[in-house]
Write a structure and sequence with these properties.
about 375 residues, alpha+beta, Nuclear Transport Factor 2, Chain: A, 2 domains, 9-stranded antiparallel beta sheet, 6-stranded mixed beta sheet, 6 helices, about 30% strand, SOUL heme-binding family protein, DUF2358, Reg_factor_effector_dom_sf, SOUL_heme-bd
Length: about 375
């Protein structure tokens, strides 16, 4: 997206406690995720240069807690001008992700520089914790734009990194990445390559302000986002894919209000269904982030209301094409089924987000999203 804005909050979790955001719980892990994590850990141990069975006498100089704190401070600089501290890594450090491998600190830093120049990455660190005698695991989100393509597609990767510690030097000797969006995380993963290629497709997103959110996790079927609060002006609609009520809400921002104030247009236009049958629908336009309820003019029409959406955690399925009622309902059903299969708790109803003017945008590059709010979610 051209104007995606992400808020970064690096939290250091208390031992044996889960992270929380408002009323959302961060203490859940699905069975499938747990099985996949166990498989990934076995692979990480096979590749690691660190012998986890080294005598304890060799680890007396390794302060793992200090290394955890170090990563909290160092990793956010992965792609900025400061960069990471190379002195924390052995010269022979083993780096692996599903499509890349290096066996030296120079190769590791070259890979970081290449990503920085080609993709303008944004790196968001969620947590860091010790997961073995000589092992630390981090969880992260990386959002990138491929600058060589004219439409600058957005690529999103979320996952974990298992970092092995050399007990003789107290430095990192291996860094193994695992993506949430694929099953086969071994190098060289054809599934991983295809996952990258699929994200290069064209989506047209207007250069307008959007609600702020942070991508917490991207699976093969959906993204999980943490939305900040935002304000909408809304009116009753007829169906998810319909436009009934649209002229009323756009009239408000175009000056049909108590002070005749014109308010800048944003994106997307939401239609929200609040019932299981997706029949009770409202159409919404998001108001600019600098606005607050106390400063907004009153609507001229009784059919229009203004309210604050508190935000929260939402699962999102992005798709292109004309969002007909049948397609939207099908997408909602498939997304809800995936969430239940993964052990998540979707709330009733959904939202359709439409980012484009259907009269001015080719259908195959339209950007649409179906969103379902979640009761709770975990990054553990």
């Amino acid at each position: 997206m051209a104007t995606t804005q992400l808020s970064l909050q690096i939290l250091r979790p208390l031992p044996a406690a889960s992270q929380t955001c408002g009323r959302q719980s961060y203490g859940f892990q699905s069975r499938n995720s747990a099985i996949r994590t166990r498989k990934n850990l076995k692979w990480a141990l096979r590749l690691s240069l660190v012998d986890q069975n080294q005598p304890q006498s060799q680890s007396r100089g390794v302060d793992v807690k200090q290394l955890v704190d170090f990563l909290y401070d160092d990793l956010p600089h992965l792609f900025d001008d400061q960069g990471i501290d190379r002195t924390a890594y052995d010269e022979r450090v083993k780096f692996r992700d599903p499509i890349t491998k290096h066996d030296s600190i120079s190769g590791y830093l070259f890979n970081i520089a290449l990503l920085k120049n080609l993709f303008r990455p944004q790196f968001f660190l969620h947590w860091v914790k010790q997961t073995g005698t000589y092992e630390i695991t981090t969880r992260w989100t990386m959002v990138m734009k491929f600058m060589l393509l004219p439409w600058k597609p957005e690529l999103v990767f979320t996952g974990t990194s298992i970092m092995g510690i050399n007990p003789q030097t107290g430095k990192f000797s291996s860094h193994l990445d695992f993506w949430d969006s694929i099953e086969n995380n071994n190098y060289l993963s054809l599934e991983g390559l295809w996952n990258v290629v699929k994200q290069l497709r064209i989506y047209k997103t207007p250069d307008l302000e959007t609600p702020r959110y942070q991508i917490l996790k991207r699976t093969a079927n959906y993204e999980v986002r943490k939305y900040s609060p935002f304000i909408v002006v809304e009116a009753n609609g007829d169906k998810l894919s319909g436009s009934n009520g649209f002229n009323d809400v756009t009239g408000y921002i175009f000056g049909k209000n108590s002070t005749m104030e014109k308010i800048p247009m944003t994106t997307p236009v939401f239609t929200q269904a609040n019932d299981a049958g997706l029949s009770k629908v409202s159409i919404q336009i998001v108001l600019p982030l600098e606005k607050d309820l106390s400063s907004l003019p009153n609507p001229n029409q009784e059919t229009i209301s203004i309210r604050k959406v508190e935000g929260g955690i939402a699962a999102v399925d992005k798709f292109s094409g004309k969002p007909t009622e049948a397609i939207v309902c099908q997408k909602e059903k498939a997304l809800r089924s995936c969430l239940l299969k993964d052990g998540l708790k979707p709330k009733m109803g959904c939202l359709l987000a439409r980012y484009n003017d259907p009269g001015r945008t080719w259908e195959f590059i339209m950007r649409n999203e179906v969103l379902i709010w979640l009761e709770e979610f975990s990054l553990e």
